[in-house]
Amino acid sequence: MIVLANIISLTVIFAVPLLLVALGGMFSEHSGVINIALEGMMIIGALFACFTLQAFDQSGFGPAHPQLAVFLAILVAGACGMIFSLFLAFAAINLKADQTIGGTALNQFAPAFAVVLTWAIQGQGLTTIRIPTWVRITRETLGLAPAEGQSFFDTLFFKYFYLTTPLAIILLIASYIVLYKTRFGLRLRACGEHPQAADSVGINVYRMRYAGVLISGFLGGIGGLAYTVAAGSGFNSDVGGYGFLALAVMIFGNWKPLPILGSAVFFALFKVIAAYNSTLTFLPDFKGVQDISNLYQMLPYIVTMIVLVFTSKKSKAPKAEGIPYDKGSR
Amino acid sequence: MNQKRKPLSQNATLIGVLASLLSILIGLVLGFVLLVVLNPGAALEGMTQMLTKGVSNLSSFSQVLYQAAPLMMCGLSVGFAYKTGLFNIGAPGQYTMGVFFALLFAIQFQMPWFVCLLAAMVGGAAWGVFPGLFKALFNVNEVITSIMFNWIGMYLVNLLIANMPVMLASAWGASNSDRTAALSSANPGAIIPKCGLDKLFGDSPWINISILITVLLAIVVWVVLQKTTFGYELKACGLNRDASQYAGINAKRNVVLSMVIAGGLAGAGGGIYYLAGTVQYVIEKAILGMGFDGIAVALLANSHPIGAIFSSLFVSYLQVGGSAMQPNYSPETTDIVIAVIIYLAAFALLMRGVITKALSRRKEKEASGK
C-alpha cells in the first residue's frame, strides 16, 4: 500500500510541472505562436526562483515564513519566465521571424546562461543550486500533529507536497475559465485560428499574441520551479527535457485544458515508472535486460507520435499557429 | 564600370554574408557585455582567449578542425532540409543514431572505418525517414516529429548499448560499463586514418582526414543542389510546394528524400566524431548538443553548403576558445554567443533589409556625388 501511495504522490508531483508548462504552451499556440522555447523558459524561471529561495534561506526569512517565501519564489519564477518569453514574442510578433528558430535560440541560450551565471556566482564547477529543506509542506506547516510511523495517507499527501501542487490546480481552473468563459479567451483563440478575421472586428492581434506568449512564459517559469522541487536534487541548469515533454502533453491533450490534465498525469506516470521500475513488482519482468527504464522513458514520445498519426486529420491545433501575422496581407 | 554587374544592394550572397557577419558581431559584443557584468576584471582576458585560442598553437588549431567536421555535417543536414522548406531540428537524434551505427559496426562487427562511416550515414538516414514520412503521409509538422524522435533516439540508443555487452568498455579491459569501448583497444582499424596529417600538425591527437571528407561532402551537397534536376526539384518544393506539385514534381517523395538525405548527413557527423577514436559514447541523460549547434552553422551559412564549411569552422573556433576561458568563466559562455547568433538569424530577413537599405543608400550618395 505504501508503494501505491508513493507512486500516486510521485505521479502528482511530476504531473504538476507538465501540466503548468503544457497549459503555457496551450495559451501561446492558441494565440498563434508556436512556443518550442518552453524548456528554456522553465530553466530561466527555475534558475532565478532557486536563487531567490537560497537568498531567503540565508537571510533567515525563509525558515521563518517558509510558504510565504516559496510563494514569492514562485512569483519570481513566473516573472522571469515572462521576461524571457518577451524575446520570443518580440522576434515572432514584431519582427515576423521564424518562430521555430527563435525558440531554438532561446532553448540554447537558457541552459548556457544558467550554467554561466551559477558558475559566476557560486564559483567554478559549483553549478548546483540547492533547494532549502523548508520548501516542502509538512504536517507541521498545516498545524497538524506529527504523524506516527508511515501511514498510507501520510505518504500520499505529505511525502511530496509543495505549494506548487495546489497552485497548479488553481491555475488549471483559471486557465479553463480564461480560455472558454471570458472575452479575452475568445479573442485569443480567434487570433490563433484566423487573425485576419479577428483584426477585421477590431481585435489587436499583436497585443493578443503578446498576451499568449507572456502567459506561456509565466506558466513555463513556474513549471520550471515545480520541476526542480519535484526532482529533489537541486537545480542543475536543466529541467530534464520536461519542456519538450510538455509540448507532447499539450499535443496529446489536444490543446484543451482538461485533456491536458489527463495527459500530464499519464505522462508523469510513465516517468515515475521509468525511475522506479525496479521496485514495482506488478510490471512485466524483463529478465536480463539492462537499463529497461529507457523503454519507459521512450514510451510517452512514441504514444504521442501514434496519437498524432490518428488525429492529424481532425487535429484541434490552432490553424494560424506558426504564421507571423502581417497586417498588410488579408 | 562593368555594366553587367548587379548593384551591390541586389547581390543576395553578399548581403547574406554581411548579415551573418553582423549577427556574429552583435553576438560577440553581447557576449563581452555578459563577461563584463559577471566578472569585470577578467572580461578582456576571457574575450581574448575566446577569440585567439583557436589559432594560438597547432594543437588548438587541429582541435578546431576536429570539431568543425561533425559540426559541418550537422550544418549541412539542417541546411539541406531547409532548402526543401523543412526545419530539421531532428539533427541531434539523427546524429545520435549515426553514432550508434558507427560504433555498432566498429566494435560489434569489427569493420574498417569507411564501412562504419557509411553505416553511420545509413543510421542517420533511417532516423530522418520518420519526420519525412509523417510529414508526407499524415501532414504532421516535421518539427514536432523531430523533437519526439530526438528523445526516442537517445533512449533507444541508451537501451541498445546497455544491452550489448560487447559494445561496452568493460568488455575491452576497462572498468566502466556506462560507455562504449575505446576504439583504440576494441578495433584500431575503425579509427579514421590520419594519412600523415598529424605530422603536419605537430603530432596532434585531434587531427585526421575527417575535415577533408566533410569538405568533400559539402561540395557534393552543393553540386546536388545547384547542378542536378533532383536538387532543383527539392528547392522548388521548398520555395512553393503547391506550385512545384502543379509543375509535376512529386512533392511528397521529395519531402521524404530530403529528410533522409539530411538525416544521412547528420548521421555521418556522428560517425566522424566518434570514429576519430578520441571520445567514447557515454550513456546520456540529455540530448547531444552537436545537432543543435548544426542549426547555428546552417543559419550562419544561410543554408549554403559551401558557407557551412566556413561557419562550422567559426563555431568550432569559438567553442575551442570558450573552453580556454576557464576558470574565470564557464565554457558555456560560447553557447550563449551562439544562441544570440541563432536568435539574430531568426530575423534574417530584417537584417538583410537593413543591409540592403544601407548599401543602396551608399549607392545613391555616390550617384548624387557625381
Write the layout of secondary structure elements.
The complex is a heterodimer of chains A (330) and B (370).
Chain A: H1 2-30, H2 38-59, H3 61-64, H4 66-94, H5 99-122, H6 152-158, H7 164-181, H8 183-193, H9 195-200, H10 205-231, H11 242-252, H12 257-276, H13 293-311
Chain B: H1 12-38, H2 43-56, H3 58-83, H4 91-108, H5 113-138, H6 142-162, H7 183-186, H8 197-200, H9 210-227, H10 229-239, H11 241-246, H12 251-274, H13 290-300, H14 305-323, H15 333-346, H16 348-369
Helix pairs in contact in B: 1-2, 1-15, 1-16, 2-3, 2-14, 3-9, 3-12, 3-13, 3-14, 4-5, 4-6, 4-12, 4-13, 5-6, 5-12, 9-10, 9-14, 13-14, 13-15, 14-15
Model description:
The complex is a heterodimer of chains A (330) and B (370). With 330 residues, chain A is mostly helical. Chain A has a single domain, classed as ABC transporter involved in vitamin B12 uptake, BtuC (Orthogonal Bundle), CATH 1.10.3470. Helices cover 69% and strands 0% of the residues of chain A. Chain A contains 13 helices and no strands. In chain A, α1 packs across α12, α7 packs across α8 and α12 packs antiparallel against α13. Chain A starts with a helix and ends in a 19-residue tail after the last helix. With 370 residues, chain B is mainly alpha-helical. Chain B folds into two domains: 13-35 and 329-370, no CATH class; 60-328, ABC transporter involved in vitamin B12 uptake, BtuC (Orthogonal Bundle), CATH 1.10.3470. Chain B is 72% helix and 0% strand. Chain B has helices spanning 12-38, 43-56, 58-83, 91-108, 113-138, 142-162, 183-186, 197-200, 210-227, 229-239, 241-246, 251-274, 290-300, 305-323, 333-346, 348-369. In chain B, α13 (290-300) packs across α14 (305-323). Classes of the chains: A mainly alpha (330), B mainly alpha (370). At the A-B interface, α5, α11 and α13 of A face α5, α6, α13 and α15 of B.
